[in-house]
Amino acid sequence: MGGRFKPLVRLSILMAMTFSVVLSGCGGSKDNSADNGSSSTGQTATGSSSDGKVEPFNVSVFIGEAGQQPTPDNKIYKKIKDETGATFNFEFLAGDINQKLGVMIAGSDYPDLMTGNTKLTAAGAYIPLEDLIEKYAPNLKKHYEKYWNMMKDPNDGHIYILPNYGVYNGKLNSTWYSGPAFWVQKDVLAEAGYPKVKTLDEYFDLIAKYKAKHPTIDGSPTIGFEILNYDWKNWGLFNPPQHLIGHPNDGGVVVNNGVAEIFADKDYAKQYYQKLNQMNEQGLIDKETFVQNFDQYLAKLSSGTVLGMFDQHWNFQNAENSLITQKKFNRTYVGLPLVYDTSTKDYYRDRAVLNLNNGFGISVNAKDPVKIIKLLDTLITEDWQKTFSWGIEGEDYIVNDQGRFMRTQEQRDKQSDGTWKLANKADALFGNLPKIEGSFSDGNSTDAAAQPEEYKAGLNDYDKKFLEAYGFDSYVDFFSEPPENPIYYPAWSIDLVEGSPAKVANTKLNDLSTKYLPKAVLANPSDFDSVWNEYTSQIHKVDVKAYEDKINEQIKWRIDNWSK
Amino acid sequence: MAVTVTNKKAVRKPEKKRKLTWAVLKSQQQLIWMSVPLTLYIILFAYVPVWGWTMAFQNYKPARSFSQQDWVGFKQFKFLFTDDDFMRVLRNTLGMSIINLVLGFVTAIVLALLLNEIRKVIWKRTVQTISYLPHFLSWVIVTGIVATSLASDGIVNDLLMKLHLIKEPILWLSEGKYFWGIVGASHVWKEVGWNTIIYLAAMASIDPALYEAAEMDGASRYRKMLHVTLPGIKSTIVILLIMSIGHILDAGFEVQYLLGNGLVVDWAETIDIFVLKYGIAQGNYSLATAGGIFKTVVSVALLLVANWTAKRLGEERLL
To answer: How far is B79 from chain A (nearest CA, A)?
Structure first.
């Protein structure tokens, strides 16, 4: 009996499954459309009857990076809901951003607010904001006044994205440097008697001496220098040459008098990689450095055995936090703005620039953009900004007799507690909102970490002693005061336009560097020149001109349109 | 596929070919109704998407309607075939694919033969379970394991050093010449147990009388394996081979993407990675589609050739 029965059963199960898939698919979409419909009527209703009274409404938000949902009873979001009526539904990126965007674009499936992305702009997913801001958002208009022209999309002149960083008010206090530098373990400097290190040669000498003296750290072999080149995190390998000749970070080009050219094939680039090649010969460079992935890199840094690397501070922040948790303060890092020779002035630290293509844009699917822009306009006011950055007075910070904001040690500790933050901070939202940076009208710093009193009070003993030895107030003082930015700066934020010959050339150049630079560094010193020549001859086969032309065209465009 | 099978059965049931009349249709209506959902499924998910191939001949921009797209003819294909790197990625794809194919078949068949000889059920089950468990790990995890074991202080180097086969650790992942082998070996590790299942099933269906007869004739265990078991699963092997040949341009994506690095890029990049880099990552969906079409056309052609060869050799066929 079983023999006859089984295939039938199997078939019917299969069919049932097929049906259920088909049905659930249909059901889902039906639900959605019904949902959209009802929420749209709900919104228009509240929209017309608002003014004065707080009526609840929902804003769906897509955040283009991985993150954690805030707790349902988060106090800041609750305050927003009580005072403005807005409830946020966050969707965080899970997986690959390009894949996610591809799906969103293909289905025109956009939430109300989305973080900026050139792919979405190209797909026409955002609505132009300039008229809305003029009409409904006086605070935003005032906030962005000086930057208005910069925010316009170079392709059609509309404003789609509200930049989240780079708009400064008042005096800028900076105590934390997040950008690129040659980093070195504090202990290396401490042991050498706190020297001022200026050049690449001095830097590697220090590392070599320290490594010779301490072949192991905490039982593991000491690693002299790390170069991370993994996936899109390629600056550790690609970027140093431009800084070593005293230029700021312009990505793949160096700009002289408004004219950009690639530097990958230039002699000053060769000089750097040749130095790395020699250092590799001396065994200073980690053997596995070009094979490792980002996690392995962080693991090595976190172990405290890595003496130096070129990186951007934010990129290895997690490793440094781990060192701090382990109380290995002498293994944390100082950024050094190295140059080839002392006559060159370092230009690593730059004045913050408008963070174009980042921040929120309102999508074409948003049912009531006016309501959303009004909400954003409310949130840019100083009271709200204080709530976001400092928290709630009395609970998260205190105001001392001079009217300065301070935190108690307990409050300070909470700020580094991830779980606490999910319930008491609105970081996911605030990170992408338009924000006031610098100082508030009462003189307090907009960022607690940049409040000088706060910074000093929060320093541990090791760092206090370290900074005293150098006579500096903070680690930012290792860098020269940055000059006024050129108008076009930075060239790395130029949108090469998806699929254009310039973008293809850029991809090819990156491919070549990824392939040849490790080879050149690891080569036998006598073979270095031949590898280098092969590399440059391959570069010259690429349509470099298309790449440089596009950048120069945009530099010119920025100079023409951004100048006041 | 399920549909064609049920349809065929429905039509074939009568001994002679009967004319398709309303009466026939009516008498088989239950069967026809049963096949409708699956036919719909196939049309919806296997044929309708082929419409998307038009993208390959456009300069496709999302959010534009079909009539607003620019038609560019074979531009995308031209870019693909004239690019210097394309030949390289094609070579890598074929190389790794063939290694995977050969290693995959040989190891799976050998393991299946060995397992089949084990008389103790518990032992056999244990080996089988252990060997097919890695199949359920995702490649992300597997590449993590591979990278860790091949690191300079990883288990592979440790073992080779202890055995005095090498003097100092080899950086396996930094040499292009090892890369294909590493990929092949990882595939074997991950898939060998899983691949044996189907052979074991085929072996189970071999008539025990054949073994008995062979034993009567004085055949040794080894002889039985060679003259009874292997011929018994030959048709299964051929069918699976034809199917795999159709997939020869799918050398994989995750392994190469996750294990590859600048030093081995010449050996690690496959067609899929190339298409991702120059197609999807650049927002050039047309190029990505063109790459997809190329792969499909080659696959179908290879499938037909393999099928035809099998037919000429008098073997089991797929189509």
So the answer is: 11
